[in-house]
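Dear support,

We are seeing what looks like truncated structure output for some complexes. This example has two components. We would appreciate it if you could run it in full and send us the complete token output so we can diff it against ours.
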Amino acid sequence: MAKTYDYLFKLLLIGDSGVGKTSILFRFSEDAFNISFISTIGIDFKIRTIDLDGKKVKLQIWDTAGQERFRTITTAYYRGSMGIMLVYDVTNEKSFENIKNWIRNIEENASADVEKMILGNKCDLEAKRQVSKERGEQLAIEYQIKFIETSAKDSLNVESAFYTLARDIKAKMEKKQEASNPAGARSGAHQIRANEQQRKPTSWLSRCSLL
Amino acid sequence: MTNATIQEIEGIDDYWGPAFRSIYEGEGHEAFVQQLDERIKQHDKEIEKLCNFHYQGFIDSIRELLQVRSHAEELHAEISNVDANVKDTTDSLCAKAEELIRARRVELNIAATIEKMELCLPLLTTYSKLKSQVEAKRYYPALKTLEQLEHVLLPRVGPYKWCGQISADIPRLRQAIQDASMADLRDFLENIRELSPQVGAMALRQTQEMLGRSLASIVQNKKDMAVLGIPTNITAGPQCPHELVDFSPLHRCLHIHSVLGAKNDFIQYYRSQRKQQARLVLIPASTNLHDSIVGVKNYLNAVLGFFILEEHLLSAGAGLVSKDWLLDMWGMSVTKVASTLRTNTSLITDPTLMLSIKHQIVLFINTLKCYGLPTDPLPMLLQEMAEHYTEVLMQRWVGVFRDILDNASFLPIEVANQDQYDGVMDTFPYDGDELETEPFPRKFPFSTIVPAVYVQVKEFIFAWLKYSAGLGLGGGRRAAAARHSASLLLSRSFTGCLSALFRRPLPLMQLVQIIVDTQYLEGATLCLYEFISNITGSELVTTQTAGSMFQAARDDAEQQICDKLEKKVDEFLDLENYDWLLVEPTGQASSFVTDMLSYLSGVLTSLEQLPERARVAAVRAATNRIATRLRNLLLDPAVKQISSGALDQLNLDVIQCEQFAACEPVPGLKEGELLEHFASLRQLLDLITGWDWSSYLHDVGIEGGKYSLVTPRDAATLLEKLKEAEQKSSVFSVLKKNERDRRKLLDTVLKQLKQLQNQDGS
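Here is the complete output from our reference environment:
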């Protein structure tokens, strides 16, 4: 049976309520924008398949509710994630300050080798800006995480953010693969298997820790 | 002898023949001649003696005669003289007499002429009077004069030439008068055509005033007038609408024609003219009555004015208009009016315009009643218009609802302070006892659309009732109709908008909120009914509840929720990446299954606001989808071979799902209900992994058997795949004995299954 994809990456969007996580996801998955704010309840996901260096990569992107009351539901999804987008709103100082808390959250709940990226959203609202691009960059350097400013409304950098994160995950995965299996050339189906195997240790580990 | 013969001769005067004969024949000739001579001598002697005797006398006589002759001559002269004298005198006399005779004749002639002339004079004066009357257009007296002239005066006067002329003139004059009066009539008709809209307008105004009349307003009016110092009895202008029109030309014409003996012709003519006018009146002047109220007003005014005038003529008598004719005309006209209005109003999409038209028609009807004209198809028209009005309103409110829904966030209303809280509570009847005590921000269970729609429905009812006002309906009937329309609005228009909303993909939570919102709206229907009964002043009817008003919309929303969940399940299952030749199962469920189950339980808990029914339906749909998809995976023809390791892995995943189903993710499920969705898959897996072919083949076809849900075809399909995988893995290895046995058994079972399949097929 022919597989519909070569890789499956699970990504997670986190950040304060109202910073535009859902909008970013909506822009990326449907290439559309909805001005009205409808806060996400619990958790939702979208799937988009992208082409990365000739490989079909399925991105299952989880959109979490930023509101505190859903925190218990959302943290459960950290563990399986291979990449996490930390989103703040450049027009909202508080959301930027909270990025640190979100990073701590990741450290506590996600697997250690998860790829991360910081997004400063709503960069189209220059007049209302409270957080400068430099401060964002500074923070990213501090945590050694990639950073990019985006606008879901103007479709600015959204694609490239997801592609960058996906490419990083893919590179990391291939590096691991080569390390564990230097023989190299494999068919797509085998790679999937490799992928599974690669994920296995973490799963097992988490199981152990749970037990 | 001889003597005798002479005597004889002397004795006889004649017949001397025989005497002569006897002489002649006798002899005595000489004697006789002697005797005769003697006799002659005797006679001579006697004559001489006589002459001697008479001589003297004779001479005397001659002398006398000569004397007479002179006398006669004298006399003659004298007489001639007299005669000349007389002649002289009588000549002049005669001339005089003749003169006299002539004079007398002239005198007689003059008398006769005068007499005749006197007879002619009245004729002439009358004729001149007639002329002047005609000139002064006083046709009726002119006609009377004409009559007199013709029948009294003319026969009296002899057959003069000029009389002939006058009598020849009479028909001409009569025709002229008739023509002139006709012209007058035409002027009149033209005139009333222009005036009748004014008449109609005035009548309508009066009706309006009359309808609006109440004791208080009358008193107020009087007071106002008193204050302004206006005497109450001043009458400016006509009091009655028909007084606007001067009917005298018409009556004159009628009189003229009745004098002319053409009354019936005239009535016919008048009626046919009016009929034609009516036809003109009935065609609206502006072709688009639905554009503005002015057109309708003018139209109704004209029609009304027309018939008010006719009605007035009917009551004024004179037979110009008969009741039958009027009613006949009216019947024809009112149907036409109704159909014209119907056609025009059916195009209107502006409720305000419809209201004003309705008002005009109601006024029209009331005025008709005042004038005793039947209103018949018009109330029907009003009813039809009411339906159309409702349609129009609904159309409008569809727009309003669409706006509300388009701009709605479908999030529960959150209020930060008392003002906002009161704002919501003022617009929507919500029993917020519990909410009252909560600290701010308080959160209503419903979203903004609930109060918004509730307010709009109220607006709709207001607008709707505006139409039924003044129709003379009882409060109860109005309320019932309003309730009906409001329910219709909610159940049709609003639900329609909701259905339209569902056509675009909505987030799950919004769908949930819509379902919740519809429940609150339904709950508020009673308040709407109360509102209606308050407005209409009728009793509150509580029997009719609109329990399932939004059921269709809710079903739609539930279906959407189910579809959404199924879609999510599909998305998860699309992530499936089974290695169908797996040697050893990993010992734990596949990650897409665990992700999916945790996602589902998360979603299901967040659906807690939903009615139980909807949640159950959602979870059923999701579970069924999972079971179907997993089962399809196993039987997918694209998967040619399945190792028992892979089968174990799938079994493990199915067990996860079964656990999820067994622990009742939502309340209200029957025990084990969700597991039933997995039953067929479970039996198939159990059969294959348990290698329980003997009991399967034993029970096959029996109801309620352990594997009753597994068809021989499915069993065979899966078995083939297993066989393929085993053959592949053991191509090069030598089979152990028990493996050989197993292979043999497998082939036998396969054969039997094929047989069963064939049996079923045949």
